[in-house]
Design a protein that fits this description.
Blueprint: H1 2-9, E1 21-22, E2 27-28, H2 30-48, H3 54-57, H4 59-66, H5 77-86, H6 98-103, H7 109-122, H8 131-140
Antiparallel strand pairs: 1-2
Helix pairs in contact: 1-2, 2-7
């Protein structure tokens, strides 16, 4: 992830070898691709940067919280709204504490990624190719996606 963040912050706009790929393309793993999606989402959030506007600065809320308010921003609607729009929530990444993780049965990221992979591959593909081309490709190669 650090490599993709640094590449993105330097201005790079296309990366070929990232999620799912191992050992300089000697191996590929669907589960790694799925888990890498969470990491790349974090990278993309960093690259997007921080929006600075009157709304995001929220000077009125700063004044309200600091001058007679609770002394923190956790209860304000603005804080919740910014967190929902600016914070990246991973699809599979686990952000629980070790104690919470144990209490919820120690979910395994690879097992969860495998389940998601199987769901994705079981669903009909949204890709639509010319029917003649699709048939030729399916005759020549083992295609694991349904054409329905």
């Amino acid at each position: 992830m650090c490599s993709s963040v640094m590449a993105g912050l330097s201005g790079l706009n296309m990366v070929y070898e990232a999620a799912g790929m191992h050992a300089s393309l000697l191996g590929f793993c669907h589960e790694s691709l799925i888990l890498g999606d969470d990491l790349i989402g974090q990278s993309m959030r960093c690259v997007r940067g921080i929006e600075v506007s009157d709304e995001t600065m929220a000077l009125d809320q700063i004044a309200s919280v600091c001058m007679g308010g609770p002394g923190h921003y956790l209860g304000t609607d603005q804080t919740l709204s910014r967190m929902q729009s600016d914070h990246v929530y991973p699809r599979l990444g686990d952000r629980t504490s070790p104690k919470e993780w144990a209490e919820i049965g120690k979910p395994n990221l690879v097992e969860n990624a495998t389940k998601l992979k199987e769901q994705i591959l079981a669903a009909p593909s949204e890709v639509k190719l010319d029917p003649v081309l699709d048939l030729e490709l399916r005759k020549k190669y083992t295609i694991h996606l349904n054409n329905t």
